[in-house]
Amino acid sequence: MNQFRLSIFAVIMALLTASCASQSMPQKLNDFVDKAELKSSSYSESDWAESAAEYQQLVDDYINSGKEYNEEEKKMAARAMGRYHALLIKNGLEKGASFLKIFGNMLPEYLDGFSSGLDDNADSLGSTLDNLFDEEKIERSLDALENTLEKIFGNEIE
Length: 158
Known about the structure:
82% of the residues lie in helices and 0% in strands. By secondary structure, it is mainly alpha-helical. The N and C termini lie far apart (74 Å).
């Protein structure tokens, strides 16, 4: 009877191990970001460095896996990457509030310079980027970003 219980336990463990091993790279990336979002409020500087290194390894593994992912997996990975970058920005904002005060005073001129630089190079940028992206999806994403920025900063963005 003991041997039977051990056999059943071994089979269950093997199945659990196999199910964990079959997790796709997009799912691993998504799970990593989920955990980072839950734990990041208590991260030290070394925790952030370790997290960033692990994140980069997961992204590299995803990009270089040689696997063809379906649309849902691609969307999951892209969203996870966006969420992690937002988490990095949030952490950076919290850590760099004093710099933001200085930068906030420079921001209008910085954005003017950035806009001018893009405008000066619009023709060459346009031909480089022509048909590279789905413009409708990018437009929807930019609208969503603008809405989010308006929530953060109020209606000061124009």
